[in-house]
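Try this one yourself first.
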């Protein structure tokens, strides 16, 4: 019987640990502050930003909200980031993506000081991860490593296969698994015979962005399956990139959707905010 990896419980545990750290920092006269910038009123972004603010309030992190108009110029956005970079009382800066089409996301990501880059998207943060130096790590893959470790799943020496090579999930995921001494293969839309590769995986991380694409035919008996995908089906129910019911009987452990990887992303963002002060 497969073990269900409970991201809700593990993220709650991490938040409790962070709450204690934040109150210890406060006792030493240090406050943790996250600035959250949203441009426009995209409904999904508003939900994400709202959840981030709630998590901050719960843990004791001060959050500063900047809600900018959809037609804010790139220049004005960059000027705000510059101001926040220079503020001693701001530890983390987060710009909610996606940004409106007239703004160059890469320029914005690069404008955030690497010292305050709590999303871990700045090229310097990615470079540091690549060469094994300290830096902020992208929250979703960092959360997956926590899910595995806190579920007692050994990564060292294991065959790890990542489906997807995005900058936000697939690539940093592969680097983190490598850092944990996994033997890592990255697959993508041009991979020939995906099943032949995924069937080798002891740990399979699925970030393909296609609802229920991964069925039991892709899974080695006893594999650990981590589902990063989030989609709404025809009945408005959430589902992942993995066909959970189909895969469950053949794997040894699996993350559900919802309640798997999703809650970990915010917990790791909070962790990065606290780290920005501890550093
Ligand atoms: P993306 O669209 O940027 O990347 C998808 C990747 O899948 C690409 O690298 C592509 O090459 C690969 N791919 C596409 N079709 C393929 C195929 N047939 N075979 C093999 N590889 C294929 O997506 P992303 O930003 O990495 O996100 C992936 C999923 O994870 C999405 O469902 C997204 O909503 C979800 N997501 C969840 C969280 C979370 O907090 N839980 C965070 C980020 C993303």
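Now uncover the answer:
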């Amino acid at each position: 019987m497969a073990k269900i990896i409970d991201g809700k419980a593990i993220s709650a545990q991490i938040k409790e640990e962070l709450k204690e750290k934040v109150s210890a920092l406060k006792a030493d006269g240090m406050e943790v502050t996250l600035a959250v910038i949203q441009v426009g009123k995209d409904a999904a972004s508003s939900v994400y930003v709202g959840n981030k603010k709630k998590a901050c309030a719960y843990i004791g992190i001060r959050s500063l909200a900047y809600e900018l108009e959809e037609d804010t110029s790139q220049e004005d956005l960059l000027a705000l980031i510059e101001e926040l970079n220079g503020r001693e009382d701001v530890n983390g800066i987060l710009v909610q993506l996606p940004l409106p089409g007239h703004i160059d996301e890469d320029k914005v990501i690069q404008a955030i000081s690497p010292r305050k880059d709590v999303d871990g998207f700045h090229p310097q943060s990615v470079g540091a991860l690549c060469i094994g130096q300290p830096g902020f790590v992208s929250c979703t893959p960092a959360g997956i490593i926590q899910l595995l470790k806190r579920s007692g799943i050994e990564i060292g020496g294991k065959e790890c296969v990542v489906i997807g090579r995005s900058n936000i999930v697939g690539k940093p995921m592969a680097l983190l698994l490598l850092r944990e001494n996994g033997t890592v293969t990255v697959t993508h839309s041009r991979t020939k015979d995906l099943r032949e590769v995924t069937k080798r995986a002891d740990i399979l991380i699925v970030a393909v962005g296609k609802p229920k694409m991964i069925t039991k035919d892709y899974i080695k008996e006893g594999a650990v399956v981590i589902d990063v995908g989030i989609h709404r089906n025809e009945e408005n129910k959430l589902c992942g990139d993995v066909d959970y019911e189909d895969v469950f009987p053949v794997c040894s452990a699996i993350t559900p959707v919802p309640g798997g990887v999703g809650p970990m992303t915010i917990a790791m963002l909070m962790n990065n905010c606290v780290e920005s002060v501890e550093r």
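Discussion: The chain has two domains: 29-115, 139-262. The chain has a mean pLDDT of 97.
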